[in-house]
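Retry 2 of 3 after timeout on previous attempt. Resubmitting structure tokens to design endpoint.
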């Protein structure tokens, strides 16, 4: 049994894919870092003043550079004039490189990874002229679940967010909950709102606007989560689940939910045919961007999700999309929708979702994870050549096989693992603690493969 689990650990190593070198700057000392994350940042060549900041959280088995290369956030930052910070997970924290969205000890306010990410936001405010009223966060997959919890836990910091292939805030409290969350947990809107509000005890809000993207063919995280997330955030904003605006954007059903003042507070994109990936739209057009050539977990869906999220947040000038500075009033967007566009029925059938969650650190690393490190001054940033991703899953694998799926049933029953590419870290928990040091050894090997 233990031998089979070890084999599962080994064969679950992701297929390799080459990546473009996305040049980011690493900030080695950025303040308190209880979550033991790495910080990378991007600033346009002509550094804007009183500019927005976007926090971008990668998915499992990704790096900051991988996310930057595929999604095109840096290109959009150049066009619109904002800064981007990329937290990156440590393999000691999670062998599969996932943010630990499934553990409240990591995502609750001022705890763990959440506290580290907020320290990065503060460091960006020290280094650059950041508008504190226009700080946003997006996340993919595990990063999407984490982003949702940070939006709920820090509504006094974030003006808006985008959840891509993720799910509701606070869905899981321990790794045992991760499989159910990825398959889709059915709560009422009021129940979901209570979960979100419990993450922020400083007052009643107001809460950030939220843009939700989910592929209809996602077999890693069920698209049931699109509906559940919409129900959570509309309830948090005190609006019902009937969209005031229904249209189709580049072939994808799009719904906008407005508050009593007519302000768009939630929007959803049900991305038809898209797998477990960020939708991009490579090309030279003003609403086009992203790359599928040398990055993982991106797919050409004829819709550049980062652009549409930025538009919903009010970062795209209405008179000239994706060209020029941010709106002077910093107002939130109207959803970027066309009210009289043809309406297409949304598809609610859920993808098949397995675990896909977490492997927490085994024995090792606990000694290395000392108490938080506080530094009054930031150290000299290190320019890094962001991207050798020698162990990443390409977009096709993400779409077709979900590349982060579990084999816990096979491990539990000694059955043959028919599709090792569908492995995920949650399943590896079964015998990880029966073989101390295995995760650490494999993490070491993965680090060596990255170099």
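Retry 2 succeeded. Sequence:
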């Amino acid at each position: 049994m233990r031998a089979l689990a070890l084999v599962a650990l080994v064969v679950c190593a992701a297929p390799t894919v080459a990546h473009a070198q996305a040049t980011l700057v690493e900030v080695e000392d950025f303040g308190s870092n209880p979550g033991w994350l790495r910080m990378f940042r991007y600033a346009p060549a002509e550094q804007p003043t009183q500019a927005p900041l976007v926090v971008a959280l990668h998915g499992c088995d990704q790096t900051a550079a991988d996310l930057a290369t595929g999604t095109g956030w840096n290109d959009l930052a150049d066009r619109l004039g904002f800064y981007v910070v990329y937290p990156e997970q440590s393999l000691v924290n999670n062998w599969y490189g996932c943010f630990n969205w499934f553990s409240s000890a990591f995502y609750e306010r001022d705890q763990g990874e959440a506290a580290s990410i907020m320290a990065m936001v503060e460091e960006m405010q020290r280094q650059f002229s950041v508008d504190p009223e226009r700080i946003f966060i997006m996340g993919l997959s595990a990063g999407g679940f984490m982003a949702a919890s940070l939006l709920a836990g820090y509504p006094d910091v974030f003006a808006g967010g985008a959840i891509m292939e993720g799910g509701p805030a606070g869905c899981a409290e321990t790794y045992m909950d991760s499989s159910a969350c990825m398959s889709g947990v059915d709560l009422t809107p009021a129940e979901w709102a209570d979960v979100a509000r419990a993450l922020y005890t400083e007052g009643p809000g107001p809460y950030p606007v939220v843009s939700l993207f989910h592929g209809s063919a996602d077999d890693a995280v069920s698209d049931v989560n699109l509906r559940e997330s919409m129900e959570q955030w509309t309830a948090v904003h005190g609006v019902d689940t009937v969209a005031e605006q229904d249209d189709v954007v580049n072939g994808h059903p799009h719904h906008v939910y407005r508050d009593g003042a007519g302000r768009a507070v939630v929007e959803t994109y049900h991305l038809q045919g898209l797998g477990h990936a960020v939708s991009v739209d490579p090309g030279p057009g003003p609403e086009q961007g992203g790359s599928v050539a040398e990055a993982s977990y991106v797919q050409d869906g004829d819709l550049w999700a980062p652009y549409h999220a930025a538009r919903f947040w009010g970062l795209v000038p209405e008179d000239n999309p994706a060209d020029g500075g941010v709106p002077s009033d910093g107002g939130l967007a109207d959803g970027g929708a066309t009210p009289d566009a043809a309406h297409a029925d949304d598809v609610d059938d859920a993808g098949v979702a397995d675990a896909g969650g977490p492997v927490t650190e085994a024995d090792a690393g606990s000694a290395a994870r000392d108490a938080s490190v506080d530094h009054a001054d930031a150290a000299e940033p290190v320019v890094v050549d962001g991207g050798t991703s020698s162990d990443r899953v390409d977009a096709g694998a993400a779409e077709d096989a979900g590349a982060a799926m579990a084999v816990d049933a096979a491990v539990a029953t000694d059955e043959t693992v028919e599709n090792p590419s569908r492995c995920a870290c949650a399943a590896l928990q079964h015998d990880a603690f029966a073989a101390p040091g295995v995760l650490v050894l494999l993490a070491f090997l993965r680090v060596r493969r990255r170099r």
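Attempt log closed. Confidence is low (pLDDT under 50) at residues 1-22, 320-451.
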